[in-house]
What we know:
Shape of chain A: elongated
Largest interface: A-B, 31 and 31 residues
Distance between the termini of chain A: 38 Å
Radius of gyration of chain A: 19 Å
Strand content of chain A: under 5%
Number of strands of chain A: 3
Order of helices and strands of chain A: HEHHEEHHHHHH
Oligomer: homodimer
Strand order of the largest sheet of chain A: 1-3-2
Structural class of chain A: mainly alpha
Amino acid sequence: MNQPITSADKTFIALRDDIVEGRIQAGSKLSETELSTKYAVSRAVIREAINRLESCHIVERKANVGARVVALSPQGLIELYQVRESLEGMAARLAATNMTDQEIDDLSALLQSHFDEVKGGESYYQEAGDVDFHYRIILGSKNKHLISMLFDGIYHLVRMYRVQLGMAGPRVTTAYDEHKHIVQAILNRDAELAEMLMRRHILYSKNSIERKLS
Amino acid sequence: MNQPITSADKTFIALRDDIVEGRIQAGSKLSETELSTKYAVSRAVIREAINRLESCHIVERKANVGARVVALSPQGLIELYQVRESLEGMAARLAATNMTDQEIDDLSALLQSHFDEVKGGESYYQEAGDVDFHYRIILGSKNKHLISMLFDGIYHLVRMYRVQLGMAGPRVTTAYDEHKHIVQAILNRDAELAEMLMRRHILYSKNSIERKLS
DNA sequence: AAAGCATAAATTGTCGACAATTTATGCTTT
DNA sequence: AAAGCATAAATTGTCGACAATTTATGCTTT
């Protein structure tokens, strides 16, 4: 979905953001009638929005009983990162062969701009910057399934964990180096290495988070 | 969804099977009113079923225009196998550490029964047997996201390709050896090797299919 | 005759109402 | 007083109707 068109699109996004940002509590029940008045749309629209959230693994629904926001747990975060490692590793592998020279150039430029910011002492990098970097590589894979699984499915959940467990992108400087090496591997069209480096990158990130949680 | 409960559940499954088995043509338009009469349910139920099929990547929907069954293409099949390689590789890795001894025993027994069948000259193996083998390893990963992505998402699409491009599981005997090696790696709790072997297994399978297509 | 426009037909999107199911309430029985 | 049951209330599921949008039709203009 590039642009929200229908009322259901907009409600889906509004509801999703309210959940991801924690304005609707994790684990809480989603009452259709309640949400219907809250977002000023019919129950049919709410139901469609909830169905889509279920596809994203953000809510769980039981027939004839209703939907609940998923509960966050350390175990859940670990499982999420395992999937990320797998999928983004493959994305990096494919990106190394499928990205155009132009796209790689742009990626290098993005990385350079991050370097300037990090050197300038700004911490902006960790948030949007990291996401942006990963986005480009995922898109660069040119694999439709990979792209939609990560963007529609995994990434909002990752964001939900980030926001609610309050882990604002750690490891700024080391992550920059890792990014640099990944870009270098892609530049060399070394698919094998690009995958390996991306997997390590995500694994380190997972370990870093695990340490914070315990 | 373990058991279909609501009318929407049943319609979703009926519609999905009709598409996967080719009774509804790939690439064709899905008219809500038409399907409504065909399956003898209201349009609301049809719409919910179509929405779920969209989540499975079996249909594509455009706002205010309607839904179409996805078109099958060699490129699409390749992309699908890339995702399978990635996810099932990780599943095998996780299974090597997370499966119980009992589960591994059962898996070995399953493999033995396949061996007997192959030796007996039956070709039953290739269909349900292969699927069953992969199912167990995926479940053995104990990773919720991995399981649902593969079972709800990827596998029906794979089946759709198998049925419609008429590729009834090739490579029977060689695949058996590959399965055996994977089980051995899991038995040894060698996660690294289990992943590598599973990835190779799926890669070979992809190559074999590619050869048939061209 | 081809292109463009206005109107009609058909299709999807949204709504409120009723049905089916689950959950809460309060009574009865022991 | 606790457990079990019947009934009431609330919630989800399904339906048909209307609104909004897209697509098809046929006329007008050049």
